[in-house]
Specification:
The chain is an alpha/beta fold. The protein has 4 helices and 8 strands, in the order H-E-E-E-H-E-H-E-H-E-E-E. The chain starts with 6 loop residues before the first helix and ends with a strand.
Length: 155
């Protein structure tokens, strides 16, 4: 957690530590909240909630991917709604990161991933009604299970 007095301090704090959510005022001494986002780049800024006394910046705030926009004086009920939205966003981001890590682990271990399909055994004993036949194939899930089979009768 950090409290900053101006845009320069905000930028320094964001470069020094990992921050999950940024409550950012629009009008600050020497720069604006939008200047901070422009200097860092939208993709390098954490989840951002703009807090300001001026409602005319709302559209611009959402154009730079703000999660929410609170006007001063802040209503406690509205702040609780915003915090709930922020928690959901952070949980979604965490879940996505976990999914990506697991996928990487599975690929590294050369296990089946969501795009890989396991293969069936290459040989299968099939009873065709009167005789048993030994069929050879390398079928995969999603394909015709009999595609590529060659029948060899057992004597």
């Amino acid at each position: 957690m950090a409290e900053c007095r101006n845009g320069r301090e905000v930028i320094a704090a964001l470069k020094q530590r990992t921050i999950d959510v940024l409550f950012l005022d629009i009008e600050m001494p020497a720069s604006s909240g939008f200047d901070v986002i422009e200097q860092l780049g939208v993709s390098n800024v954490p989840a951002t909630v703009f807090v300001t006394a001026h409602n005319q910046y709302a559209l611009k705030a959402f154009n730079v991917h703000a999660i929410d926009y609170l006007t001063k004086p802040i209503d406690p009920g509205r702040l609780n709604e915003t915090i709930s939205i922020v928690k959901d966003r952070i949980a979604s981001k965490t879940a996505l990161a976990t999914h990506k890590q697991l996928k990487t682990v599975f690929e590294t271990l050369n296990l089946s991933s969501a795009t890989d399909q396991p293969t069936y055994p290459k040989r299968m004993l099939v009873h065709n009604g009167s005789k048993d036949a030994f069929d050879v194939a390398a079928a995969q899930i999603g394909r015709n299970p009999y595609a590529g089979f060659q029948s060899h009768e057992l004597s």
